[in-house]
Here is the input.
Amino acid sequence: MDENDNIIRLIVVRHGDAEQETGVPDDSRRITKKGKKQLKRAANFIDKMNYNIESIVSSPLIRSRESAEVLVDELGLDLKIDMNDSLKPDADIASTIAFIKTLKDNTIIVGHNPNLSTLLGKIVGFNGELKKAGVAVLQLDKTNMKSVLDLLLDQKVLKLI
Here is the structure.
């Protein structure tokens, strides 16, 4: 294996705006019209950056899965969306990191907080919250799980692009 095979571009996207929890179980919450619009902005940015997306993996929760579907549709990708429990909001961060080590270059992961913000904290020292439909682009060395944060964009910035 070439040493550079361990350096990947990872695109981290938090799900879009979702239904409120009132009367709807958390696992069943769907993205809203606003959420779809937010994700179209995220997809527009990813498209403009000309990333050659090789795979997309989502949390199995509906709002995350629907978010991944919007990205695939907007980007015109002919990719199956894989599901992984390590991207659920309450997933153990060790299992998320172990999963990340298996990913290919130019992969989009779609998930939830607190899991995604915790992941960014562990691998790039990010001390904040990845906002809904926010996008983080990383250069990640899978051998030591050290990363360079290339971009971190929230919806306020994505609206300007």
The domain at 3-158 is CATH 3.40.50.1240 (Rossmann fold). Helices lie at 33-48, 62-75, 93-100, 115-124, 155-158. The two ends are 38 Å apart (CA to CA).
